[in-house]
Write a structure and sequence with these properties.
two-stranded antiparallel sheet, Isopropylmalate Dehydrogenase, alpha/beta, 10-stranded mixed beta sheet, 13 helices, single chain
């Protein structure tokens, strides 16, 4: 039976890089029915909301959701003029919440061919292979928000259940990797972080005693990611800290244009797979965007969304070999455009 894939191209370069990912999925032999929907700013233009009800319903009925990117200056200006105007990014929050996607996985593995593309020295990043596990549906992004003319507040709240399930995700991931979890919090200041640390410690002792656990304060974790990233295996943290740290970690690879992500919920529910980068509206329509993060997001979809490990590995290996063979897009100091980069990956797949 064909896999049911909802495609949300979104805004800016989103539709372009997702089109490239679909070409790679076809080449690897995926049998899929694709259902395209407007999302983000494009949905605001079409429906007045970034996430239409029929789009959410389609996503719930799918096997997986493949997303490009959302946002852009046009909608930012609308929000600046009217704080009540819809934000494209609200569609992402609504989709995560509507699908129960509480775990965001962001693998970070600088490739030897690109060690010199990183802003860090080769000896600092060589051998880095880490996974950021970010809690995705709790914390300050989803807490109560208030604003007056001269005051604003955002509530950060976490329950024990929310912390337990993301901790289990991290420990289970570590068991398939090198068996080391670093839990990141701000327990010296925040009450939510104290609950976080206590809960992660208990889940470790009760359910995963064979895995190594350490705790780091978020400011120290940010420094260590730059100073000695090879020490990390799996990092688990709350929503806002994870957002910041995963983007910082992305730069170890030399470009945020190389990183995909998977957002997962309970077993059997559809996952959301998207590149980490933004919509880059200044590049839209120019054919110069790096499609590799979208292609690698499609590989994560094959692995985590469709249980097609062989196909996922084939796509990832093709990207690695294309870069080894000299593929360089503009963000990596080269001149390969979207089509050329996609063709390079397809050529490696055919080999």
């Amino acid at each position: 039976m064909s896999a049911r894939i909802v495609v949300l191209g979104g805004d800016g370069i989103g539709p372009e890089v997702i089109a490239a990912a679909r070409r790679v999925l076809d080449a690897v032999g995926l049998d899929a029915d694709y259902d395209e929907h407007s999302f983000g700013g494009a949905a605001i233009d079409a429906f007045g909301t970034p996430l239409h009800d029929h789009t959410l319903a389609a996503c719930r009925a799918a096997d997986a959701v493949l997303l490009g990117a959302v946002g852009g200056p046009r909608w930012d200006r609308a929000v600046a003029a009217d704080h009540a105007a819809p934000r494209p990014e609200a569609g992402l929050l609504g989709l995560r919440q509507g699908l129960g996607l509480y775990a965001n996985l962001r693998p970070v593995r600088p490739l030897p061919a690109l060690y010199d593309a990183s802003p860090l020295r080769r000896e600092r990043i060589e051998g880095t292979d880490l996974l950021v596990v970010r809690e995705l549906t709790g914390g300050i992004y989803f807490g109560d928000k208030q604003r007056t003319a001269d005051w604003a507040s955002d509530v950060c709240a976490y329950s024990v259940v929310e912390i337990e399930r993301i901790a289990r995700t991290a420990f289970e991931a570590a068991a398939r990797r090198r068996g080391h979890v670093t839990s990141v919090d701000k327990a010296n200041v925040l009450e939510t972080s104290r609950l976080w640390r206590e809960t992660v410690t208990r889940v470790h002792a009760d359910e995963h005693p064979g895995t190594t656990l350490e705790h780091l304060l978020v400011d120290n974790a940010a420094m260590q990611l730059v100073n000695r990233p090879t020490q990390f295996d799996v990092l688990v943290t709350e929503n806002m800290f994870g957002d910041i740290l995963s983007d910082e970690a992305a730069m170890l690879t030399g470009s945020i244009g190389l990183l995909g992500s998977a957002s997962l919920g309970e077993p059997g529910s559809p996952g959301l797979f998207e590149p980490v980068h933004g919509s880059a509206p200044d590049l839209a329509g120019r054919g110069t965007s790096n499609p590799l993060a979208a292609i690698l997001s499609a590989a994560l979809m094959l692995r985590h969304g469709l249980a097609l490990e062989r196909e996922a590995t084939a796509v990832e290996s093709a990207v690695d070999r294309a870069l080894d063979a000299g593929l360089r897009t503009a963000d990596l100091g080269g001149d390969a455009g979207t089509d050329e980069a996609t063709a390079a990956v397809l050529a490696q797949l055919s080999n």
